[in-house]
Amino acid sequence: MSDSGQKQPGAPETGKILTTRQGHPVSDNQSLRSVGERGPATLENYQFIEKITHFDRERIPERVVHARGTAAHGYFEAYGKIGDEPAAKYTRAKVLTQAGVKTPVFLRFSTVIGGKESPETARDPRGFAIKFKTVDGNWDLVGNNLKVFFIRDAIKFPDMIHAFKPDPVTNRQEAWRFFDFVMHHPESLHMVAWVKSPWGIPADYRHMQGSSVNTYKLVNDQGQAVLVKFSFEPKLGVKNLTSPQAAEIQARDVGHATRDLYDAIDRGDYPEWEMCVQIMSDDDHPELDFDPLDDTKRWPEDQFPLLPVGRLVLDKNPNNFFAETEQSAFGTGVLVDGIDFSDDKMLQGRTLSYSDTQRYRVGPNYLQLPVNAPQERARAATNQRDGQMTYHVDGGGENPHVNYEPSAMGGLREAPKPAKDYHPFVEGHLGRYQTTRTGDDYRQAGERYRTFENWERDDLIANLVEDMKQCPEPIALRMVWHFWHCDEDYGRRVAEGAGIDLEKAKALPPLPGHPGPNRHRDRVTYTDGKPEGDRRSSQAAE
């Protein structure tokens, strides 16, 4: 016990059973209910819905996550091709198939954990949320700069954010809370390698990648689908900061990235990204040692190359920060015809959570705000009425008295159905499942460590050493165990730097329910130390 009589961090609780708000004991807090291991989630996920909708309402009025942000207007121009082939081979989405058409966009950048006035030098993933105002209505692509995430099941998202947010007692962010969560989730190790390296602090938004992170589907006119991931590569290249560089900038300016973006657009130096996709056939790919729907993993670019599909340019600053940037609202469920959902469990959970958050934070009529409304050619026409802050009726039919459908009195009617719609076959036993293909939890993290430049690897080790010194011994030992299983040099350097007994860490048994990596698996090697097709590295900011 501490002098204050409080239990030390890391000490186990006994006799406490997790329940829902209704008092029901929770026997599985790790997995959504789904149709089979890879099937879609089901609407009767009461435990998840209670958990995620309460989480969405934890803060007012700023966002619970991604509160600190800046944004700009611009346009997306499709090439009409995906790689060397016509885009229509894969999708009927006009925003991707119509070459040369400039689709208006609004792009919001953000940090994740900090509040609205937190510094932009924080070590944190960066949000990369785009609202495409297409001729067929809005398409929201809500992603991050890094191409992976910490968890692969949305039911864990509130726990993850709670662990990463400040301590509810001290109101300080504590390293032990972050790693207490991570040590129980080996799937997080890949993201840890990214976010604790210089890639965890982008130099600014103009020199930063974007990614959907989640897997979607493209659907063509024949009703055929492929899996797809979206990426955005900055034409200016990628630049990141080391911890000392970030500290120096933060001492002068907590909003340096906002200033950099605004000033660049103001002087006509418009930032540009090339939008690319990776495409994979729509099946479970047993030849891979990870599930392609697992968002903690990257698709190898030598097998699934980045194919250019268009360019994205930002050329106008908002006229008012609150009216546009702060009230802008995005949702992963906002898709256009030709782009569809995959069974990615994080995507399915986010699709409920994101729009639910906006209805709570901004109000049920948030889509009537100009920054969120679809463009003129795709004006909304619904039978939805009233609610807080209604200031116009969404179009309606020929007869304003009819706010229902169907009607013979001039009301709205359904749109024509596609000639061939997409109807995937789904069957399986309803239950709570975790992926059984977990060997890559360690392999991709180890590959990332070996792929980093020396200066990136040094910065990663230095950051983790500092963190481990702040963690209770049980957490520090387990994290070294994880790092060593990713790469022996990785674990050894962290242990030596933090003064942790490596042999004691290596002697730990696997966590219950996590068998650990297969130490006898073949280790992939490369002639130049970097995976083919994935040699992109960052530059240190000057």
Automatic annotation (TrEMBL):
InterPro entries: Catalase (IPR018028), Catalase_AS (IPR024708), Catalase_clade1/3 (IPR024711), Catalase_core (IPR011614), Catalase_immune_responsive (IPR010582), Catalase_sf (IPR020835)
Gene3D superfamilies given in the database record: Catalase core domain (2.40.180.10)
Compositionally biased intervals (Basic and acidic residues): 523-542
Residue ranges constituting the Catalase core domain according to the UniProt record: 19-413
Positions of the catalytic residues: 66, 144
MF-aspect GO terms: catalase activity; heme binding; metal ion binding
Root EC class: oxidoreductase
Keyword Iron: yes
Signal peptide segment: none
SUPFAM superfamilies listed in its UniProt record: Heme-dependent catalase-like (SSF56634)
Membrane-spanning ranges: none
One cellular-component annotation, GO: cytoplasm
SMART domains noted in UniProt: Catalase
Pfam families on file: Catalase, Catalase-rel
EC assignment: 1.11.1.6
BP terms from Gene Ontology: hydrogen peroxide catabolic process; response to hydrogen peroxide
Cofactor(s) in the UniProt record: heme
Ranges for region Disordered: 1-38, 503-542
Family as reported in the entry's similarity comment: Belongs to the catalase family.
Function: Decomposes hydrogen peroxide into water and oxygen; serves to protect cells from the toxic effects of hydrogen peroxide.
Name of the featured protein: Catalase
Species classification: Bacteria, Pseudomonadati, Pseudomonadota, Alphaproteobacteria, Hyphomicrobiales
